[in-house]
Specification:
Elements (H helix, E strand, L loop, with lengths): L18 H7 L7 H14 L10 H11 L8
Length: 75
């Protein structure tokens, strides 16, 4: 599948079902995704967490290529 800009659309699903881990191991997470997002947002606002290039895929790849231009030679 292609996007309007000509790139490939990522059609993977990241949905997971934790029923089995709950039933077999009697495990229940203390926090959910919303809790995690709120925590990261709070830490960014308070300055305890600083954005880094490695969090942004394109920026990180560009940085890796700047550090090692021959990185893609093996492909």
């Amino acid at each position: 599948m292609r996007s309007g800009s000509g790139g490939v659309v990522d059609a993977r699903s990241y949905r997971v079902n934790f029923r089995r881990i709950r039933d077999v191991l009697n495990f229940a997470a203390l926090y959910n995704v919303d809790d995690g997002v709120k925590q990261v947002y709070h830490e960014l606002l308070t300055g305890h967490l600083k954005p880094e290039d490695r969090w942004f895929t394109v920026k990180w790849y560009k940085k890796l290529l700047e550090q090692n231009p021959k990185l893609l030679d093996s492909y």
